[in-house]
Structures are given as C-alpha cells and as structure tokens.
Amino acid sequence: MRFFVLGLTLIASLLVVRRASAHGRLIEPPSRASMWRYGFDTPHDYNDHECYCGGFTRQWQRNKGKCGICGDPWDSPTPRIHETGGKYGNAVIVRRYRTGSVIPVRVELTANHHGYFEFRTCAMTYRDQEVTQECLDQHLLSAENGSTRYYPGPGNRVFEGYYKLPEGLTCAQCVFQWRYIAGNNWGDCGNGTGAVGCGPQEEFRACADIVIGDNEATLPPRPSTSPTPTDRLPTDTSPLPKSGPNWLFNFIIAGTCLLVVLAAMALLYTYYYHAGRVKKWLMARRLLVQESPPVAPPRHKRQHHVSNTQLQL
C-alpha cells in the first residue's frame, strides 16, 4: 500500500509540473521584464515568461486570488521586483504614443493555455510611486472591434492586436498592463455546472512604462492585411472547450507513468516478500548439483629400521 501511494504521488507530481508550464511575455510595448531583449540596458530577467503571480496555488490558496500588478506574488516583499522601485522597475520609457491613438500590442506565448488577454493603462501621479490596480481598471482598453478581450488562437507564437488609447489621457509616465487569464482549469461556472475555463485560473501579468501626450508623433499606418481568425475577436465569454491533443497527450503521459510505477512496485514487492524463497530455491539447486567432497589420499605408515648395534645396546 505504501508503494501504491508513492506511485500515485509521482504521477500527480508529473502532471502538476506540466500544468504549471504555461508561459508568456509582453513584447510590444516591451515589458519591464523583457525590455532587455530589445536593446534596453536594463537588468536581465531570464524568467520574464513566468510572471504568473507565484503560481496558481500561491495566488488562490495563500493570497486569495490577489496578485501584484506586474505579475509578482502578492505576498512578496515590497517594492516587488517588477514594480516601481524594484529590481526591474526602473522607470525606463519604452514607447511614446499620441493621445487617443491606436497602438499595436504583441504578446508571445510559449505554452498556450487558451483563455484571453486584457490590456489596461494608468498615469502615474508621483514619480517612484507605483499605480494601483484600481486605477488601471479605470482604463480597460478596447480593440478596434470594441472587444476588451483578446482570445488567442491555438499554438505557441506571437499574437498581435490593435488597441485604442483613452481619449484625453496624457501622462509623462503611464503604466501599460497586460493580463492573461488562462482557461485550462476545470471550475465552477456559477450556474450549477462545471467546465474547463470556469472558476479560478492561472494568471499572468506584465507592465511597461510608456508616455502618452498630445505632442507625441503619431504612429505610421499599419500595413493592410487580410483578417485572420485571431483578428476577429469573439465577444462570447462562455468557457472554452479543451482541445483534443492536450488531453490525449496528458493521457499518454499518465499511462506511461502508471506503467513505470507499476513495474517498480512489482520489483519492490518481489524483493521484499519473495527474496527468501528465491534464495532457498537457489541453495537447493546448488546442493543437488554440488559434487561429493574430495577424499583425502590414504596415509602410509612409516617403517623404522633399527640396526643390530642399537639392539645389542
């Protein structure tokens, strides 16, 4: 029983490792964590694709769903490393936009877990004082079709959308926020049913420092391209179905791990409970085929010859 529990624990650990492998980064405008990849002389964050609030368990069980505005764990020391005053929050302006303009936004996903993106911005009131999530929520950006959510298509690649900045918003430094709400966990939909994509999900966030002003130069017109499935953003917020290849891959991994664990358990069971019988069986066969013990050669009595002279004495 002990080995069976150990095997189940091993399988669960492998599945959890894969579950937590979703990754993504904001690359346009370059986030504080990723700007070093695009020519900015800032500290290198080699884990810039892992700003996921400390992970699903830490965010939802320990911090009750709370997260830093740039993806740091809520309970980490302040200033958090990706926020103003932290290691990567150095107030480096990466883009300058004109008020009310439509800007390109790009996100790179290296492990696509469905869900949707949202983008927000907020002006900093004081230098070296980070903005709040409440301020960011006041400026939820909309795409050209009016949708505030971007649903990425399948695959691991760069996703692009165009979003309109708020009219009348100007700032010497604004925080541009990306939020990625994944959709691969099963949860309660709130209507008595459960489905993949409902309930708490894994979440990613990132921040970029930008300038928005009336005197900033307008962006050049983007090249006209035929609309793609990812350009037509759905407005339906119903749970996303779980794709076939993902569950099939999970099933194959789980089956392989189960076979390996069962084989290991069989070997351990044989060793602990049948090793004595095997030893006795081997000893019996050895006794049957063992040759008769060697016989010592006959001993001959040594003859003593006594001379006549000695007998006379």
TrEMBL record:
Keyword Cell membrane: no
Residues annotated as signal peptide: 1-22
Residue ranges of the region described as Disordered: 215-239, 293-313
Feature: compositional bias, Low complexity: 227-239
Domain Chitin-binding type-4: 23-210
Protein name (record): Chitin-binding type-4 domain-containing protein
Organism: Cyphomyrmex costatus
Pfam families registered for this protein in UniProt: LPMO_10
Keywords, in A-Z order: Membrane, Signal, Transmembrane, Transmembrane helix
UniProt xrefs under InterPro entries: Cellulose/chitin-bd_N (IPR004302)
Stretches that traverse the bilayer: 247-273
